[in-house]
Amino acid sequence: MMMPLLPALPELVLRQRCGVIEFPVHHMRGGTSTGLVLHAAAVPPDPALREELLRHLMGVPQSGQLPGNRQITGLGRGAPTSNKVFLAEVEQHAGQPRLVSTLAQLAGGHAAIDWSVNCGNMSSALQLWGLDCGVIEALAIGAHAIDIRNTNTGAITTSRMRREPDGSFTAAGIPGVPGSFPRVDLFLQQPVGAKTGKLLPTGNVQDVVHGYAVSCVDVAVPMVIAPASQFGKTAQEAIRELEADAAFMAAIRQVWSAAGLLMGLRGRDGELMTLEELERSETIPKFCIVGPAAGEGNIAVRYFTPQAGHASLAVSGGCRLAAACLIPGTVAHGLARGVQPVGEEDAEIAVDIANPAGILDTTIVARRQAATGDAGDTLAIGSAAYRRSAQILLRGHVPLYQASAALKAWLLKQI
Asked: Rounded to whole angstroms, what are the CA distances from 361 to 49, 314, 319?
């Protein structure tokens, strides 16, 4: 049951000034991603009006494509990691409040919005958003945890923050973000098979796709993992160097698209995605190349979202790769060094992943079990945990200078 929103802060009320409707937003950073968090109740229920609003807020074209768009009319920042919008609200579950999140993934160069995936990085901003705008109870001193149900994938995440005696949030630093900010610990609950129903969507620990050995895993979101050496790489390269290699980018696009067909990936409408849709997809499947860690860490990775390289590593991508490191026979397991083997009892297993921003520390709670189907059934994963930080970049209003008559009419009724 959804709860009515508590009275909003004055600066978060929809308003009209100088003849222009202004929409309230939280512009936030979660982990190494940035984007907006909006009250779901303040957003039009009509899908067309909702998407029009999000395009205005982020500065992407309302229709078609606009290659090279710099998003100078909105709050998006070009990269997929900075083109995210969460719609958030609160529901009651088992007598306790629970955040509900729906992610819209935008891209600067076209109007299409992807509603099919979650974002582990931006999810770390949701508890801070809820506390800041008053839709969840304010923290007393000490730890506070709340579950987050993501509607895109059905995944349940537990978010935990801590408040110090002076009222501030306990701070932490993470790779890829200078300085220390409010610390958020996130626990993905029962993350296996969020999109496909299987840890190994193809039923195999390895598949050969266009001549390349890959492992396909589904932990929160499906991902294709390939040894960097097959492409003449080491997984130590700078992301810009990889993106500038046209032959490499063409090869991995061919691999992830074909692997997506093998996994039977479906769009938000429930229909099987075509090869053409997978080639254009901004969100699934994720893709990474892996190799031995050169220094710290158990394995090295370069991660793609998939169309663009990631400056560090998506935390959910880190959890997927960490899980793959625990499955004998996967390409990740063969390249990982020093990872604790999985036993017959649930245990926390740390997997440290070297990426362009440093080391991502992940923890997988897993145990061995008797196989009942494909190879992935031999591993039971209870949860995957990671640490992030979050911050409010801005809370305020975005004037909608070019809103359509239909969008204006709906919004004016809410004022």
From this structure: 40, 12, 9
Token representation of residue 310:
């990631």
Looking at the structure, tell me whether residues 321 and 220 fall in a common domain. Answer: yes
Query: What does DSSP say about strands 299-304 and 347-355: parallel, antiparallel, or unpaired?
Result: parallel
Model pLDDT for residues 170-222, shown as the tens digit of each residue: 999 998 899 999 999 998 888 888 889 999 999 999 999 999 999 999 998 89
Q: What SS3 class is residue 360? A: strand
pTM across the whole model: 0.77
Tokens read off for 409:
């009419």
Q: Count Cβ atoms below 10 Å from residue 213 Cβ, excluding itself.
A: 15
Q: Say yes or no: 233 and 305 in one domain.
A: yes
- Give me the CATH number covering residue 334: 3.10.310.10
The closest of 368, 367, 333 to 351, measured between CA atoms, is: 333
Q: With 60 as the cut, is the pLDDT of residue 2 above it?
A: no
| Residues 305, 73: Cα–Cα separation, whole Å | 24
The DSSP bridge partners found for residue 181 are: 172
Q: Which of 225, 209, 51, 26 is nearest to 129 (CA)?
A: 26
Say if residue 106's pLDDT is above 80: yes
